[in-house]
Amino acid sequence: MRCLVLGAGGFIGTNLCLALGARGLPVTGFGRAAAPPPALARVDGLDWRCGNVERLPDPDALVAGHSHLFDLIGAGLPNSSNDNPAQIVADGMPPRIRLLDACRRQGVRRIVFASSGGTVYGPGTAAPIPETAATDPISAYGIGKLAAEKYLALYHHLYGLDYRVLRIANAYGPHQHPLREQGLVASVLHRLLTDTPIPVWGDGSVVRDYVHIGDVVSAMLAVAFGEDGPPRLFNVGSGVGRSVRSVIADAARVAGRPARIVAMPGRSADVAVNVLDSLRLRQRTGWSPSVGWEAGLADTADWLRRALIKS
Question: Which of 14, 59, 219, 270 fits a disulfide with 175 by CB distance 3.0 to 4.6 angstroms?
């Protein structure tokens, strides 16, 4: 058994590689950087491959010898993806299809795809949202994630390629870089700890489901190595909705710093309320979120202090 993690240098990828290594599983990490993140020095025997999946010359060479593939590669950012919707299709779909072809040729046993529970459902869906809810994305990013899900289902239908899709809520925790325009919790805590103003788009009433990265990774491991058969699509969330302003207030209390808020215009790609129902995942695997909100905030703040803040 050997695992290939695409996007291994990112937030989820770093945490997943650490968890796989802790289990003693051989790991190949694929990312754009020439070297893996320093944190992955703890993963014994990590095979690091540098490259760009959009210009991968030989997908079969990358995939060969791996039993499980974790696809954590994103395509842009939700709120900027509508600036150039065609780019999501041009950059995201052809390389992903080439990888699926390589997976079926090389006998990969299971693919785990990180989709987006925050963007594929769209507005007007009553919370908490089950996997059976309508999918009406209002961002090109969400459409790209949904298209990738559909191609996985197609390749299962045509070739029997096994897969699991995890529609993940707003993940947060250690190793999430606060300056990459994605990840409210990390951004807010970093701004609090560096005494920097916090931008709030709209009135701050947008509600999201925040789930700790430790719980996200445990869900990935549960579906990768556990249950068999349908269903193959699962939500991963805490089931609790929190507004932007409440997140800022809670983070300020944990950080022990006052928040300085800067009002910004609302964004067209922001769904008003998005909270996920993860009952299906609990019933099939026994998974449940184990990291409490306050503990998760403190964990993230501690990592930011150690890793990024020098003062």
Answer: 14
